[in-house]
Amino acid sequence: MNRQTDRHRRLLLLAAPLLASMVGLTPAFAAQGRPQTEPGAVPAAPSCELVAVGSGKPGGDIRYKLHLGGFPAKQAVRVDGPKASFRATVNGKGELDRQGVKHGAYRVTFKARGAQQDVRVTCAAPPADEQGSGKQSVKVGKVEVVVLTPPGTVIDCAKPTTAEFDGKITATGPGKVRFHWTFASGSKPVSPGSADFPAGTTTQALLHVADVPARPNASTVTVFATLHLPDQKMSARSGPVTFTCEKK
């Protein structure tokens, strides 16, 4: 009887370290079985691709979108591309689509949880279209100028004043439209700038305030302004703005 008791005691003593080690390892094994869903965790394969989505019109330039996939949910990213960069946040599925981007090389950078350095992903890109060479040429459909200064406004013609105009450009993007103004015939270009059009057809308004010089001996002053689009070789002239000089 004593021998059997001693044998049970020895078996229990040998089993104790093994049981302790199993208890200590159980949480680790359980953690391995759980999916890594914590924000900022590095996914298996974050990817980025520039995708051609066709042209807006037959024979038009190819348009592109940037597609991100496989990123951590709600991950903040920075995208660097040709002559531009932007910051964004992917959706809950780790995806992001940005329409109307230019053809070229793109790279996505983000800070992963627990990583000492930023994670960088190079975006795959298709060859530039041979006909359009990847160029995104905005197409202007209409340009016009509306007079904002009320007709018959009475002014002191011995002092300089201003006249207000509203230029409107309707175009199909994406792309930029350069413009400038002239005031009266033969005047030099003033107020140059560019209007940025997103994908689709949109109209943008361009407020222009023109300086009207003093004309002390006049009874009325009539002026106009012209909006020029040099790349499209288009222009639009406003109607006349006639000021009445106050009597003294």
Structural notes for this entry:
With 248 residues, the chain is mainly beta. Helix content is 13%, strand content 47%. It has 1 helix and 15 strands. The protein has one helix at 2-33; strands at residues 47-54, 63-69, 76-81, 84-89, 96-101, 107-110, 119-122, 139-147, 154-155, 161-183, 190-212, 220-223, 225-229, 234-237, 241-245. The strands form 4 sheets. Strands 8, 10, 11, 13 and 14 form a 5-stranded antiparallel sheet that branches. The longest helix is centred in the N-terminal third of the chain and has 32 residues, at 2-33. The protein is elongated. The termini are far apart. Residues 18-38, 56-60 and 129-136 have low confidence and may be disordered.
Short structural description:
This protein is mainly β and 248 residues long. The chain has one helix spanning 2-33; strands at 47-54, 63-69, 76-81, 84-89, 96-101, 107-110, 119-122, 139-147, 154-155, 161-183, 190-212, 220-223, 225-229, 234-237, 241-245. β13 (225-229) and β14 (234-237) form a beta hairpin.
Key terms:
248 residues, mainly beta, 5-stranded antiparallel sheet, 4-stranded antiparallel sheet, 13% helix
> What is the N-to-C order of secondary-structure elements (H for helix, E for strand)?
HEEEEEEEEEEEEEEE
Poorly predicted runs are 18-38, 56-60, 129-136
Question: How much is the radius of gyration in Å?
Answer: 34 Å
- Number of DSSP-assigned strands: 15
Q: What is the helix content?
A: 10-25%
Q: How confident is the prediction overall: mean pLDDT?
A: 79
N-to-C terminal Cα separation, in Å?
Answer: 135 Å
Shape: elongated
- Beta content comes to over 45%
